[in-house]
Design a protein that fits this description.
Layout: H1 2-10, H2 12-23, H3 25-28, E1 33-34, H4 37-54, E2 61-62, E3 69-70, H5 82-89, H6 95-118, H7 123-134, H8 137-141, H9 146-167, H10 171-187, H11 190-209, H12 223-237, H13 239-249, H14 300-313, H15 316-333, H16 336-345, H17 359-380, H18 387-410, H19 424-434, H20 437-457, H21 462-484, E4 486-487, H22 491-498, H23 530-534, H24 550-556, H25 559-566, E5 571-574, E6 583-584, E7 590-596, E8 599-606, E9 611-617, E10 622-626, E11 629-631, E12 634-636, E13 640-644, E14 648-656, H26 659-680, H27 682-685
Antiparallel strand pairs: 1-4, 2-3, 5-6, 5-9, 7-8, 8-14, 9-13, 10-11, 10-14, 12-13
Helix pairs in contact: 2-6, 2-7, 4-5, 6-7, 6-9, 7-17, 7-21, 9-10, 10-12, 10-26, 11-15, 13-26, 14-17, 15-17, 18-20, 20-21
Length: about 700
Amino acid sequence: MRKISGYLYKNTFLIFLLFLIVAYLPVLLPYFHLKNDLITQNLPTRYVFSESLYSGFEPFWNPYLHFGIPQYGDMNNGFWNPVQWFIGSTFGYNIYSITFEEIFYILLGGWGFYKVTREFFSKDVAIIAGLTYMCCGYLTGHLQYLCWITGTGFFPYVLLFFIRVNKTPILKNFLLGGLSVFLFVAATHPGLIIGAAYFFAFAMSMIYFNKDGVMQKLYHSKFWMINLTFILISCLLSIVVIYSNIEVLQYISRGTKVSLEQTLLTPTTLQSYLSIYFPLPVHKSKFFNTDIAMRNVYIGIAHLIGLLFILRAISKRVLLSFSIPLLFFILLSAGSYFKIFAWKFLPFLGFVRLNGEFTYFVILLLLLYGSAGIHLFLGKLHSKPGKTFRYLLTFTILITAIDIILIITSKSSILFSHVNYYSLKEIIKSTIENSSFWDLLFIQGVIQIITLFLLSKYFARRFTANLILCINLIIITWLTLPFTGLGMMSKKEIQTIIGKFPRGIQKQNLVSINNAQYITPPDETQFQLIASYSKKIGSKTIDQYPVQLNTNDAFINDKLLHKFILNQSFLFLSDDTTINTRTNYDTTSIQVQQSGAGLIKCSIDNSDFKWITLLQNNFKYWEVCIDNKIVPHYTGFKTFISVPVEKGKHEIVFRFNASIIKRLAFINSILLILAITIAFYPSTGNTRLFK
């Protein structure tokens, strides 16, 4: 056992990999699937992305979502994320690959947080911090939000190199920091990017005001110039992401502030912080007054003890300095009056709908502060757990005893219900659904009492104590995953529905949208973007996706026009571009040679019709060629591409030609390659920029 533990300790990454596999085993098993937004939004956009690459189409335009969106500027789907390009161009996206991708980000984030804490604390503290990060309440609670999990995977590296450039301002740290920023902004949701900007504003302020104390190692005489350089290099290495987002933002529905009503949606309410120690029961009561995915802020027993210890160990001045950013993010993620204030007066915060997104920075700060507390705790107490530990154990026993009394007197327990079980899945599902708040509080209390008792017994044996903490994290993760992470269908069942049509993008038939063939899932609420999975232009129902071109929104709101378009094919001829005009999409008049992402080729035999319309939103980079000549095109039926055509036979090509975006992507790629090369070349990477 000592040989194994010694080998793992030397090869720390193996600890993280093994822990990940065990902690997220339910996610990896074939019996369940990741659900909600991951299936209804994240997977279908990535699916179209990979299907486009597989069929040889450029993926800059998604033709199946809201009658087409500029996918390169959709901040909700991580278009510029290199991991997405790797998966999309190799394995392709399906329920299996997206599951492993999400697990990869959890591992990446845990390792990154280990590296961050290793900058300040011992290896033992850093290991438990990284493992706790992988199982913290934010990650287990938000598995359905892939674009948030991607951010938690890359952000620790942004923080790591922010620390390193301020400790050691060499070129390598600036360039790798810029690369980390690129990965973060390319992959994650804009809400986390906005939150990160505020996080670093607070971080720089904290360093400056504590430059003669606890933050002395991070303060340099050219502190502000160092950080300005870091920002400029990061912007330069992220130029294609920044340009794409700014360009598209002015054309989409998310380009303006959300309404005051929307800005208060799905907070992490203050009462949800019960989950910092008791994460199980918060899933079972309306008292928490928010979406079930936003309630879990568990940070593990070790970091809770560290927080309690450091509150008594540091000065009031330092405590106040470090409490301000924590309080800011707690109030911001809680919605209510502070979020209304932020919506009105603080830059960019009015663009974010889901307040629980900002809870990431609450947990990040709690884990950082808790790690500092553990470091001090272990430094002072070598063989005994101390008073803080005993107080927590006594408190837990008292709460559990009161809970038992309430269960017995109120009979509000699953023990008093009668449920028939027919399979293991139904046992799990029924147990979860029928367990009361008090049942879960009891289970949680017992787990914490056993954990604390074992820790007190084996406190002096660091390997055993760390193993006990890891087991606690694993058990809590297993018990919280079914609430917020997993659907009851198997992965195979999900993939069978998704894979109804052949691999790749096939030529689309000329039939009306109402008569087109789509996938037919048993529960359509799990597969909202049916057209994307079916690879069909046009949807019988309005796509439930937050990013939509403004012109398409105007079209959707015109009920008569919407009804008229649903009776047309994705490509049709017409007398004019008004409702109830005479139309034709018969194959004797139109022959489609190719149809896919951003490219439609056809030949027409036009006897008397004046217009041809493609049901794709007329965005700025579309161009139309008739008989090999680029011709002017117009916006017809409020949003679509319409072109006047003369009588006779013609060859027509509709092409989405985002040449400026492709050039910027090429330049950005060269800059990233140069940055990596220079960073790892010793004679350049170790060059000190500031002395």
